[in-house]
Amino acid sequence: MGHAQDHPEAGARPGMLPLTMTFTASALAVRGALQAVKGVLREQALAEEIAGLVEIVLAEVLNNIVEHAYGDEGHGEIDLEMENRGNALAFVIRDAGRPMPGGAPPAGRPQDLDVEPHRLPEGGFGWHLIRELTSGLEYRRLGERNELRFLVPVDGPVTRH
Amino acid sequence: MDFACHDSGGMRLIAVEASRIDAAVAIQFKDRVRELTADGPMRVILDLSQVSFLDSSGLGAVVAAMKQLGDGRRLELAGLTPNVQKVFRLTRMDRVFTIHPAVESLGVGLRDAG
Question: ipTM score of the complex?
């Protein structure tokens, strides 16, 4: 079944929103959290396409916390809340890691790909993906914690992806 | 992660036998592909048809794998599933790689001896 840290406690009945989860800030536990979120979205009968976009966004947000907020300082925890607002899924992600540099999320501007192959970037794609797929992105530092809020639209613009 | 490697028609076909190329395995992926392409044909095709999810770490690892091939060698991709396609499209990396719909469209028999 795997380790406890890979299977987050879901603070809601399976399939019901709002969902609250707490899990270890590790790449493997993030995988478990993504699976749990997708399971809940499936129960909500949300389109597979939406679940796919949610997974992309959450993977980037959560992996950023693992790598940058906590970094080499060992594993902290991540709190995730998800609720269905009808036209969007609303997320609140909290962690106790380092503040975001500059006090704001990166702009995530597209990188210049018109370069020689050996000069192509291997990173820096994450925030562009997050900004492309979300709306209402807000970051706050509350005491010793980071809080990130965003919406993933369930209709409208998302269909262009 | 497992890979199935097969040379045919002047190409090395590498099928990724994992459902995710993500932060948890990106470094492992990059290292294994480097080992599998240390020598061999100029043209390498990465078959991603079994990969249902790839994040920015996975994308970076694919770019790194391409760079590892060195001068004159090409890394092409095949069989991108919908969510993987989305990541390539949103980052515009679908303009950087040659992407085939499926390994079958390359016209090589899976049973050809290398």
Answer: 0.91
